[in-house]
């Protein structure tokens, strides 16, 4: 029924069956982290290098012990970075700790209240990282022009927010996401703002190539069950996109177009 | 990961694993009908008795040949009925043709343009059918007071519309559906108006016990794939409901409640 | 600039310049009531007969002292009635107290939690009142079939809710209101659920003939200023409706229709 | 009733009664332009210098003949500019033609399809213009971090889009607009995307200081009447904002908060 093999997600030349990417923050403990991530079916797991031990502290538990890089593609991210230099340095540290692994998720935040990206600093950092040989997946706002610039710089995936990080509000501006998808040649993944399963399905129905989330799973009452829900929601949304939904109309009758209406 | 066995849908005393109910109209041919229904995982299939042969015409193909009652719970419906008498007569005909099977879906329509129910006639017909021994699942508008009346009459499930039949617009008034769910002791299933997978997931996230659809699957470009999408979406939405989603808030920070905002 | 004289609201044969109808509940005192209603420009003021003294209690202050029937069309309503008999009796009492004045607003509520109408009881009461010579303006849900029935019975205006009474949520289902307007020959006025000025404007843009509100004005921090806001919003919405808005489209370019999109 | 004098809009030190700013494009002829602008009550009128004659062509009709600078504050804009240099040059040309008048509206567009701003080029151009002594009102996307940067550079007003220019879709992301308003010390005016009166009212209810529009008036069937509608809508929205709307809630009862719900 499912179509993972015939419809893979390809990022930086590597093929994935799952279109759900997850983070590792906010879980009760490492055991819950591992079980939720397993239930999500995710193959790419993003890790906040500034908050999580991937080898910086030799004497403390290493998250890679429960998320072995043989099984998961580790995606180090720059969460908590507010300027170009810190973000670039964080990516280089991650590459070193991960033996040359060059896939990163870049985020350069604009302020602590909204956690919106600073797109200017993001563009500068992306340019430096691409030139330095990184495969850059990049968190951005939902502005189609900014997304196009990030693609032009050479980012391997563009990741617009659905809503503010950690808000759970769902896709605030579906038309912007749709425009970004229509314009893009690289994968577009919604990153940040998803709160429940239907949000993830909607992102995929808009044509996104994947969804990245953390709080929506980790802050649910039952994270492992929510991880399973998200796995199915992403698959459902992808299949609905590929299946080609019926056009919406006011009524079943042939003569009930929606043109000119927009509520 | 999934929880079908521990979380069954119970209608009229019978237990179901699937919470997706489907119709049989608008498919290309009977083969596509059968394949799509199989892909949906549905265990309850609704059939418009006035439009579909379940034995009325002995010489024509019988839909029960591809939907054997041993495998599927057949749910005869009164689509196309605009008054109490026709609706009641249609249910009695179905019971006769199906050897005393007394589960029916009642719909009494109000007009041909909107296909909205006529709730007055629906209430009258429901009362007659319940007294006559039918187990009545009933299509209605999204008015919480009407839903409560239908439950009080003895209907075994109440099925508010998400949007007009065949519109594919999704849930027009989620707060009304939520209120109906909160007030109910019988199963609440969204019936009519779902257009794509995220709509089905949202219905389940609101706490509905199931979703019934036909056009959303049959009128997709690839109905079998859409049927699979809907199966996963209903499961995703149910699991998300059970998992207990994170509360929405404007920002990740603790001090960003949404109270008083409502966009 | 405005067009009140050339574009009157006509209810039960009487002509009004203002399309904003207001209630009298929840104000700090009678003085604030009078000032807010004056600022609203309303010509029709609805009064809850079961809660407000219009002469039942000879020794107490009479609201008609600050809302003289020479200046305002008094619209007695049946707020707080949950059955046919009480509603009908309340209307007859009002007619007696108001010397034969036969314009009433009928509401028969379904429950105390939602304050949704009980449309069955409403239809029965409406039938009795119309036969008894009343000019009935009737509060109802947003079901187009129920609205049509109420018009068929002989109600002089049909008043669907935007959202639950006192909620301030705005128009929950604009497509239903639009359908009611399209089908109607009598005036359609949105009643209940408006919370702020843009809601009132939107109701008028959908083609409604007027808006009735109470809490949105009385429960604002500054009721008199909100009354002025609502007056302008209703005029703005009416003028925008008459002016014929530009069609929405995704982009300014000619080739950006919205057909098939519906967020 | 109204509060124009006690609640002025102040931009670059000058005081205005009207909070509605309008453009001059897309009208049938100059007479219609003049009548619509008069009906709008606007005191600030924006003119696309690259498309409209304000003196560049001595032998052709000059729009300032129908919009005398003694009566209107002329706001030259850089519509049609896609790079820093053209935008800056256009502003300087306008200043020259208008005898040193230094108030401009800067827009640097990102592409012809969406007409979204290019925020990077916009920031660069804004910086140059501010240093060159211009009072810059600036068109931008609805990103709160970009808005804050534009304010930090010294722009006198920040003008986020509601939706793409010429789309008439209304405010796509009210929470973003609200965040921009909350963070700002300079006036925030919604620019682009308003389609009808309720949209303008909503912008003001969010706390915006004003609204700028062109197509919504000029492309209405009756532009002069729509101009009047918009005038009233902006006043209505402003008054509603100042009046302090009732909090939305699910039901009138005290125990029906909306927290945790977000449809």
TrEMBL record, chains A, B, C, D:
Q: Which SUPFAM superfamilies match?
A: ThiG-like
The reaction(s) catalysed by this protein are:
[ThiS sulfur-carrier protein]-C-terminal-Gly-aminoethanethioate + 2-iminoacetate + 1-deoxy-D-xylulose 5-phosphate = [ThiS sulfur-carrier protein]-C-terminal Gly-Gly + 2-[(2R,5Z)-2-carboxy-4-methylthiazol-5(2H)-ylidene]ethyl phosphate + 2 H2O + H(+)
Subcellular location per UniProt equals: Cytoplasm
> Whom does it interact with, and what assembly results?
Homotetramer. Forms heterodimers with either ThiH or ThiS.
The Thiazole synthase ThiG domain sits at: 11-257
Which CDD domains would you find in this protein's record? Answer: ThiG
Task: Report the function annotation for this chain.
Answer: Catalyzes the rearrangement of 1-deoxy-D-xylulose 5-phosphate (DXP) to produce the thiazole phosphate moiety of thiamine. Sulfur is provided by the thiocarboxylate moiety of the carrier protein ThiS. In vitro, sulfur can be provided by H(2)S.
Q: What's the family?
A: Belongs to the ThiG family.
Q: Where does 1-deoxy-D-xylulose 5-phosphate bind?
A: 166, 192-193, 214-215
* Active site (UniProt): 105
Q: Which GO terms describe its cellular component?
A: cytoplasm
Q: Which UniProt keywords apply?
A: Cytoplasm, Schiff base, Thiamine biosynthesis, Transferase
Gene Ontology MF annotations: thiazole synthase activity
Q: What is its EC number?
A: 2.8.1.10
Q: In the UniProt record, what gene is named as encoding this protein? A: thiG
The organism of origin for this protein: Caldichromatium japonicum
**GO BP of this protein:** thiamine diphosphate biosynthetic process
User: What name appears for this protein in its UniProt entry?
Assistant: Thiazole synthase
Its UniProt pathway annotation is: Cofactor biosynthesis; thiamine diphosphate biosynthesis
- InterPro entries noted in UniProt: Aldolase_TIM, Thiazole_synthase_ThiG, ThiG
